[in-house]
Every structure is written in structure tokens, then in C-alpha cells.
From TrEMBL:
<protein>
    <recommendedName>
        <fullName>DUF7704 domain-containing protein</fullName>
    </recommendedName>
</protein>
<dbReference type="InterPro" id="IPR056121">
    <property type="entry name" value="DUF7704"/>
</dbReference>
<feature type="transmembrane region" description="Helical">
    <location>
        <begin position="113"/>
        <end position="133"/>
    </location>
</feature>
<dbReference type="Pfam" id="PF24803">
    <property type="entry name" value="DUF7704"/>
</dbReference>
<keyword id="KW-1133">Transmembrane helix</keyword>
<keyword id="KW-0812">Transmembrane</keyword>
<feature type="transmembrane region" description="Helical">
    <location>
        <begin position="55"/>
        <end position="75"/>
    </location>
</feature>
<feature type="transmembrane region" description="Helical">
    <location>
        <begin position="12"/>
        <end position="35"/>
    </location>
</feature>
<keyword id="KW-0472">Membrane</keyword>
<feature type="transmembrane region" description="Helical">
    <location>
        <begin position="87"/>
        <end position="107"/>
    </location>
</feature>
<feature type="domain" description="DUF7704">
    <location>
        <begin position="2"/>
        <end position="143"/>
    </location>
</feature>
């Protein structure tokens, strides 16, 4: 279970990240127009096409899926290899998430960090933070995994 993780990555991966993903899942369902408009700093609300609405709601559903998968993996496995492979997959996805966000943002908005909105901070800042925690965990900077103790069977 998640207790095999050292303290900092355990908190970040089993509490902070699922809550962040739940917030990302709920946001497009509460206000799809706002969620889409605020993906880029200083964007204005505009009427959405049915396609844009569908993509935003599906993204919210994917955030919910990611939260559930993370909880399922990290709270049920006692295998350090499973946890490490899961973290590696997330690390790769972090790179793609930040790269796509930076690619779509214009250079002025990207470098004007003081005017980033909550979505830019989430898409770049929080994802970069998660990337750094994942990298630090994989490099062993938080210490070793806490391996579960197994019951010793008595032989008759």
C-alpha cells in the first residue's frame, strides 16, 4: 500500500495529487465555459462549440479517472516495482502536459509569470512541482521505500 512510499512522496502522491485531480475533474462540470476560457492566461469567455464543450467535459472525466487510478494503485499495492513504474508513467505524462501547455501559450504569456491565472499555475507550476517530487523520489532523494513486512510461515 502507499505506506511503502517515503513521507513526502506519500503525501504528495496519495493526498495532494488526487485532490488536485478532483478539482480539475469538477471544474469543467461546474463551468465548462470558464474552464475552457481560462486554459490560457488573460483569455476571455467566449461561447463554446459543442465540440469544445465535449472535449472539456471528457478532460474532466480523465482527471477523475487519473485520481481513481492513482488511489487504486498507491493504496493497494505492496510492490515497490509497481509504484515506481506508475511514478515513471506519471513523470513522462508531466513532461507532455507542460510541453503542450507551453507550446500552445504564446511566448509573452508564457514568460509573464506574474499574470498567470490559476489554470496556468496548475498546468505548468503544479505539474512542474509534481515532476520534481517524482524525479526526487525515483532518484532516492527522499530515502528508501518502506518495504512491507511479510508474515513468516511456520513449517510443520
Amino acid at each position: 500500500m502507499a505506506s511503502i512510499l517515503p513521507t513526502v512522496p506519500r503525501f504528495v502522491l496519495t493526498i495532494f495529487e488526487p485532490l488536485s485531480l478532483l478539482a480539475g475533474a469538477v471544474a469543467p462540470f461546474l463551468s465548462t465555459d470558464w474552464f475552457v476560457a481560462k486554459q490560457l492566461p488573460l483569455s476571455a469567455l467566449e461561447p463554446l462549440s459543442a465540440n469544445s464543450r465535449m472535449v472539456a467535459l471528457q478532460l474532466g472525466n480523465i482527471y477523475l479517472l487519473l485520481a481513481m487510478v492513482g488511489i487504486a494503485v498507491l493504496y493497494t499495492t505492496t510492490e515497490p516495482r509497481v509504484v515506481r513504474n506508475y511514478v515513471i508513467a506519471l513523470l513522462i505524462a508531466d513532461v507532455g502536459h507542460v510541453a503542450v501547455t507551453c507550446w500552445v501559450m504564446d511566448y509573452e504569456s508564457l514568460t509573464d509569470i506574474a499574470n498567470w491565472n490559476a489554470m496556468a499555475w496548475g498546468n505548468i507550476g503544479v505539474t512542474a512541482f509534481l515532476f520534481s517530487v517524482r524525479t526526487s523520489y525515483l532518484l532516492g532523494l527522499f530515502g528508501d521505500d518502506h518495504l512491507p513486512t511479510t508474515a513468516i510461515k511456520k513449517s510443520n
